[in-house]
Design a protein that fits this description.
The chain is α/β, with parallel strands linked by helices. It has one domain: Rossmann fold (3-Layer(aba) Sandwich). The protein contains ten helices and seven strands. Strand 4, helix 8 and strand 5 form a beta-alpha-beta unit. It is globular and about 50 Å long. The relative contact order is 0.21. The model has no long low-confidence stretch (mean pLDDT about 95).
């Protein structure tokens, strides 16, 4: 899936969404609640995400990792009257609680993260919601945001929609995002391609940046 437009690395930023133990590790909250199959797809993309990070580092493209963090005493969530998507499935997760191993980045992400990379702590699905991400992107003159990570139909999708609303160009290498639901993953990629950005693959992204 080649990109029709060539990309200037000076305009580009890379976002790695929620590649954390709670979402991706078999011993994390999601894996324990739903079984190993629930984290199979997120784990499969780890080498591809690392390749994208390596590409960004080689081309001096700034990298942001998001880290979802939840508070046990979050009264704003407790005030909700409509059950959450997890509660409707009869599941209560202690997902990515502040200060826990569950909330930490995967060891594979820690191994490739460099001092120049940023970590954006977020408390809701979108990486833009009440965080400093937009300000940091503007300060680094980022116009094109390459989005990778998990979960395609929730946190990745929410982030991409917010990026589009802020007039960033969005590029998604398809083999670098993952979901526990294949149908939701495919539907979200189709929606991104239709409305919010461009879906490509790692080879297409590399060609667009290297030329």
């Amino acid at each position: 899936m080649p990109l029709s437009a060539k990309l200037d690395p000076r305009d580009v930023g890379l976002l790695v969404v929620d590649m954390q133990n709670g979402f991706c590790h078999p011993e994390g909250s999601r894996g324990k609640a739903f079984g190993a199959d629930a984290v199979r797809r997120p784990r499969e993309i780890i080498p591809n995400v690392i390749s994208t990070i390596d590409l960004a580092h080689r081309l001096d493209i700034p990298v942001w990792f998001t880290q979802q963090v939840h508070y046990g005493n979050d009264v704003t969530r407790a005030r909700r009257r409509i059950p959450s998507h997890l509660e409707r499935r009869g599941v209560k997760l202690e997902l990515c609680r502040r200060g826990t191993w569950d909330a930490e980045l995967l060891d594979e992400m820690k191994a490739v993260r460099e001092d120049r990379d940023e970590v954006v702590v977020k408390h809701r699905s979108s990486a833009f919601f009440q965080t400093t991400l937009e300000c940091e992107l503007r300060m680094r003159a980022v116009q094109v945001l390459v989005v990778t990570g998990t979960t395609t139909s929730f946190c990745v999708d929410s982030t991409i929609r917010d990026a589009y609303a802020r007039d960033f160009d969005v590029v998604v290498p398809a083999e670098c995002v993952a979901d526990s639901d294949d149908a939701a993953h495919a539907a979200t990629l189709a929606s991104i391609e239709r409305f919010h950005g461009v879906v490509t693959d790692l080879a297409g992204l590399t060609e667009a940046l290297d030329s």
